[in-house]
Design brief:
With 297 residues, the chain is an alpha/beta fold. It contains ten helices and five strands; from the N terminus they run ααααββαβββααααα.
Length: 297
């Protein structure tokens, strides 16, 4: 895989701008869950569905009081998850589903993915490979994948890569229509999708694994810590300097340079190469720490 061609959520200025000081997914979910439960209990209905849930809750309260709140918590969790799922662009067409992984074509696609076409068969193979690869590493959170045209999709602009092939943005994975033949692209972006679900209290474990990897280099070669991700992606001088340092460290540690950019990239590259990394003390250490993150997903 050509890592420079990947575009990631943490490196996307559009995403950074959109996040601003907004609460995290977990914080939004908790607040939505609390507000929704309070409204159901208080009998304040947004629609007939809420009214029916309130009636069923009252029935449980009367007949099985010990089950009522647990049932309502379960319903609140379901609706909170639905609330946080961003919508696929209107007009997109679903063309494939495998083990809950849904694939759509958006309006910008110019290639043909008709039934029986070579393109569709290649796409299905990559998605099936993704599902097979992750089953013993990551939980299947049933992502939505949108096949798009990276040349015209504005999400692909303003990034490190000159010719990006995929990105994860706002709980949707986007893959360029001409780059559907590399399952690793799908795996890499899926890792970002899953990383976005990591509870905030668990994030420090991922940061720790990333820091330990770099500290090993700084200490061993007695080098002052350097910035590995440019502060301004549009500054070519900053980008080149950061890349130069990543290449140096990659050569010494044997870890792909793109995964040295930040903890999110570290996680995605580690997952993508999980079954290929040689068994040595360094990779064992990284995997051991990341396994602690995965158990919390």
């Amino acid at each position: 895989m050509i890592f420079q061609q990947l575009v990631e959520k943490i490196s996307n200025p559009l995403r950074k701008k959109s996040l601003g000081d907004h609460p995290s997914n977990l914080e939004q979910s908790k607040q939505f869950l609390k507000d929704w439960k309070d409204s159901i209990i208080a009998g304040v209905f947004a629609d007939d569905e809420d009214k029916a849930i309130h009636a069923k809750y009252q029935q449980y309260k009367n007949q099985f009081p010990e089950r009522a709140d647990k049932w309502l918590d379960k319903m609140a969790k379901y609706y909170a998850d639905q609330f946080l799922r961003s919508k696929v662009e209107k007009g997109s067409v679903k063309i494939y589903e495998h083990k809950g992984i849904q694939v759509f074509l958006d309006n910008s696609v110019t290639e043909s993915f008709d039934e029986g076409s070579k393109k569709l068969e290649v796409l299905k193979s990559s998605v099936d490979n993704l599902a097979s690869y992750i089953w013993d590493i990551l939980p299947n959170r049933k992502p939505r994948i949108v096949i798009t045209n990276s040349k015209t999709n504005p999400l692909f602009s303003g990034t490190y890569a000159e010719d990006p092939i995929g990105l994860y943005y706002d709980r949707i994975i986007y893959i360029d229509q001409y780059n559907i033949n590399n399952p690793k692209t799908f795996i890499h972006e899926y890792a970002h999708y899953v990383a976005d679900l990591i509870p905030q209290q668990t994030k420090p474990l991922l940061q720790r694994a990333y820091n330990q990897m770099l500290d090993k280099y700084w200490r061993k070669y007695k080098v002052k810590k350097q910035r590995l991700e440019p502060e301004d992606p549009s500054d070519s001088e900053q980008s080149e300097l950061a890349k130069k340092w990543r290449m140096k460290i990659s050569t010494k540690l044997g870890f792909p340079q793109y995964g040295l950019m930040n903890p999110d990239e570290f996680f995605a590259v580690l997952i993508e190469n999980w079954k290929e990394f040689p068994n040595n003390s360094a990779t064992y250490q990284y995997k051991s720490i990341v396994k602690n993150v995965l158990t919390r997903l």
